[in-house]
Write a structure and sequence with these properties.
single chain; mainly alpha; two-stranded antiparallel sheet; 6 helices; 2 strands; about 45% helix
């Protein structure tokens, strides 16, 4: 089976392996360090980013993850050009609430079919196994070819 084609850009640093909690921890650490470095408090960052102070507090205390839009506002308020510049270790794994790790949806009128969407970092080996399973499922679902009569 040929390997699937991938469109990706290699990152300079690998994101940390681990859970969403590790990402929240690293984000909180980076936020608190940036505030300290600037002699700002959470209210200062809230004013400069245009976000509610309660949200800034939730990010600084590992209670919540910002959406990509909120994270971009914070990054700009802190004077960074990109999320990658502010969080090079974890920018690839900051969760996007609109794209959950696993999304399974039933297809109307086809009770034996579902849409499957996976948004999770996995090894290349795992990707090839998933592609092989999906290709086998596609082949099994195709009707048998009838020979053409001449």
């Amino acid at each position: 089976m040929p390997l699937p084609k991938f469109h990706s850009s290699p990152s300079k640093k690998s994101p940390p392996s681990g859970s969403r909690e590790m990402v929240k921890q690293e984000l909180a650490r980076a936020l608190n360090a940036a505030l300290l470095e600037r002699d700002w408090n959470q209210s200062d960052l809230a004013r400069k980013s245009g976000l509610p102070r309660e949200l800034i507090s939730a990010y600084c205390t590992r209670k919540s993850m910002p959406t990509p839009l909120s994270l971009n506002k914070i990054v700009k308020a802190l004077g960074f050009k990109t999320v990658e510049e502010f969080l090079p270790e974890i920018s690839a794994v900051v969760a996007d609430d609109e794209n959950p790790a696993l999304d399974i949806r039933q297809i109307a009128g086809q009770p034996d079919k579902v849409w499957l969407r996976i948004n999770q970092m996995v090894s290349f080996s795992t990707v090839t196994q998933i592609v092989a399973i999906l290709n086998a499922d596609k082949i099994a679902a195709e009707p048998p070819h009838k020979p053409v009569k001449k």
